Amino acid sequence: MYNKKSLHQPLSLFSQWFEEEQKVSEVRIPTAVCLSTIGLDNFPNARFVSFKKLVEDCLIITGPLNSRKGIEIENNAHVALTFWWTATERQIRIQGLATKISEQLADNYFNDRHVNAQAVSTICEQGKETYDAQQLEKRVLKMVSDKTKITRPQNWGGFSINPTRIEFMEFKETRFHYRRLYERENGEWQVKQLQP
């Protein structure tokens, strides 16, 4: 179940669990992850986003930089990610620091998006109040129907999350859940077994 390397390298264990979930998951968006940020009013904010991939031991997410999450991360880079994987009954909680990804990487992720998602990101200001949703939708549908290449808006990008703490939890029928906490200290991962 756990290879020797993964027991000392939490991101190897993360990759192993993620791959195992992808093989058996039947949910429509198996890459969904809950991103938590610190609000400008000091209340936590949480929402689901799409996890892209691991790049140099950092987790990549994308979205509008001028959305609430983007503004909150710009104000306070301390974030948390929570994965809940139904098929394998596993949870992973990650805390870390977020930094903006490069323009080139943002272009790559934007170009990989479905054209509808590209149009929505170009036309809409995510999370802002609207007084005419139908008009906005018409503009999005027109952009899609024009079938011209949509370039990434400057306010769309992503974040690379460098983890400092990762907790793995595997649910058991006995309720004696497996919990292992990794914390980075002086550049090295330290691991603790936690009580269920």
TrEMBL record:
<feature type="domain" description="Pyridoxamine 5'-phosphate oxidase N-terminal">
    <location>
        <begin position="27"/>
        <end position="136"/>
    </location>
</feature>
<dbReference type="GO" id="GO:0004733">
    <property type="term" value="F:pyridoxamine phosphate oxidase activity"/>
</dbReference>
<feature type="binding site">
    <location>
        <position position="69"/>
    </location>
    <ligand>
        <name>FMN</name>
    </ligand>
</feature>
<comment type="similarity">
    <text>Belongs to the pyridoxamine 5'-phosphate oxidase family.</text>
</comment>
<protein>
    <submittedName>
        <fullName>Pyridoxamine 5'-phosphate oxidase</fullName>
        <ecNumber>1.4.3.5</ecNumber>
    </submittedName>
</protein>
<feature type="binding site">
    <location>
        <position position="68"/>
    </location>
    <ligand>
        <name>FMN</name>
    </ligand>
</feature>
<dbReference type="InterPro" id="IPR000659">
    <property type="entry name" value="Pyridox_Oxase"/>
</dbReference>
<dbReference type="InterPro" id="IPR012349">
    <property type="entry name" value="Split_barrel_FMN-bd"/>
</dbReference>
<dbReference type="Pfam" id="PF01243">
    <property type="entry name" value="PNPOx_N"/>
</dbReference>
<dbReference type="InterPro" id="IPR019576">
    <property type="entry name" value="Pyridoxamine_oxidase_dimer_C"/>
</dbReference>
<dbReference type="GO" id="GO:0008615">
    <property type="term" value="P:pyridoxine biosynthetic process"/>
</dbReference>
<feature type="domain" description="Pyridoxine 5'-phosphate oxidase dimerisation C-terminal">
    <location>
        <begin position="156"/>
        <end position="196"/>
    </location>
</feature>
<dbReference type="InterPro" id="IPR011576">
    <property type="entry name" value="Pyridox_Oxase_N"/>
</dbReference>
<feature type="binding site">
    <location>
        <position position="91"/>
    </location>
    <ligand>
        <name>FMN</name>
    </ligand>
</feature>
<dbReference type="Pfam" id="PF10590">
    <property type="entry name" value="PNP_phzG_C"/>
</dbReference>
<keyword id="KW-0288">FMN</keyword>
<dbReference type="GO" id="GO:0010181">
    <property type="term" value="F:FMN binding"/>
</dbReference>
<keyword id="KW-0560">Oxidoreductase</keyword>
<feature type="binding site">
    <location>
        <position position="179"/>
    </location>
    <ligand>
        <name>FMN</name>
    </ligand>
</feature>
<feature type="binding site">
    <location>
        <begin position="47"/>
        <end position="52"/>
    </location>
    <ligand>
        <name>FMN</name>
    </ligand>
</feature>
<keyword id="KW-0285">Flavoprotein</keyword>
